[in-house]
Amino acid sequence: MDIIRMVVPIAATVTMGIMAGVFGLYSHTVMPGLRRTDDRTFVGAFQALDRAIINPWFMLGGFLGALVFTAASALLLLGAGGSALAWTVAALVLYLVAFVVTVAVNVPMNNAIKAAGDPDGIADLAGLRAAFDEARWSRWNHVRTVATTVALICLAVALLRYGR
């Protein structure tokens, strides 16, 4: 049981770091880079990126992993109490914000642009791009970036508190 109490919080911190990194890269690299492209390149590249990110490594090792390991860390700390539990619960709440934003905002937007089909067969790429609303997608991604980064900090503090 001690090994589980050690490994699970570390796994929560690592997977949260992965998510903060993914969302952060979209905020400061991917979306600003795509913003500078023509409509066909934007649509095709965004579709390709979204298809590529849906894979077991990302889903289990990051997106779902951060949720499961952070929740499991909180459950493991329930009996111990203390500030490590409070920091872990704060991280869980912050990740739930990012998770809900992802499922409610970003994924439906991603699915809509993918549903348009092959960019070579889309008559109005500019219209599709405008309907996608890059600014809205990016704003909500910034929320995910901040939430997961602060959650990562919370988990790091929890590890320090738990180690005492």
From TrEMBL:
The chain crosses the membrane at residues 6-26, 57-78, 84-105, 145-163. InterPro entries: Anthrone_oxy (IPR013901). It comes from the Bacteria. Keywords: Membrane, Transmembrane, Transmembrane helix. The keyword S-adenosyl-L-methionine does not apply. This is Membrane protein. It comes from Catellatospora methionotrophica.
